[in-house]
Amino acid sequence: MLGLAGLYFELSHPGAIFPGVVGALCLILAFYAMHLLPVNYAGLLLIFLAGLLFFLEIKITSYGLLGLAGFISLVLGSLMLFGKNPAGLKLDYQVLIPVLASMTLFLSGVTYLAVKAVRKKPTTGPEGLIGERGRTIYPVGPQGGQVFVHGEIWQAVSREEIPPGEEIVVSGIKGFTLEVKRYEDGNL
Fold first, then answer.
1. In this predicted structure, what is the pLDDT of residue 186?
2. What pTM value is reported for the model?
3. Boundary (domain end) residue, out of 119, 142, 164
4. How far apart are CA 130 and CA 169, in angstroms?
5. Sign of CA dihedral 97, 102, 108, 111
6. What is the helix (H) or strand (E) element at residue 164, kind and residue range?
7. For the chain, N or C: smaller number of CB within 10 Å?
């Protein structure tokens, strides 16, 4: 499970290196352990399918369906992995349930953080300026003027005449010219 989680994190955040290395080492150790124990290969394939589905969840917009299918595949594969072995060689539920629960929480947390990052308002580039407040330096009107926004002086246009020193809000951008309007408290 740690191996799949490490590879999942490395593939979703390339260049982190540490999770990928730890994940690969854990998978190698898991293969060695499976060499010593009798393993049901259908269960092993279901676990690999779960890893593939978790990876595809990152790349394809499925609104969590691939992640849910991956979780179901992971649970079924874990149950089948050592299923017909003698009692001493079966996977104990006291181990299986906490591992599956922690994996689910981990992958849910990573997915939540990724969705939160995607939905976050841009803070750089032209999109990051829209909604920013500033002050007029020179009068701004349809013919142009200058404003101070986000620590910079910009050329700006407005539909209405705005005198110097007035608070403004950026409503759009055309090239290097800001479209602004007068700021009114609580009304952007």
1. 55
2. 0.50
3. 119
4. 8
5. negative
6. none
7. C
Given a cut of 80, is residue 169 above it in pLDDT? yes
188 is a domain residue: no
Cα separation, 32 vs 100, whole angstroms: 21
Instruction: Note down the domain range covering 177.
Output: 125-182
- What pLDDT was estimated at residue 187? 53
Pair 52, 69 in one domain: yes
Per-residue model confidence as pLDDT tens digits over 74-85 = 889 888 877 776
Helices (H) and strands (E) in the chain, counts: 6, 5
Q: How far apart are CA 51 and CA 68, in angstroms?
A: 12
Nearest to 153 by CA among 127, 135, 140: 135
Give me the pLDDT at residue 85, please: 67
Does residue 129 come out as left (phi exceeding 0), alpha (psi in the -120 to 50 range) or beta?
Answer: alpha
Is the residue at 187 inside a domain? no
Per-residue tokens: 32: 């060695």
**Last residue within a domain, chosen from 68, 95, 119:** 119
β-pairing verdict for 152-157 and 177-182: parallel
Tokens of 127: 């999109």
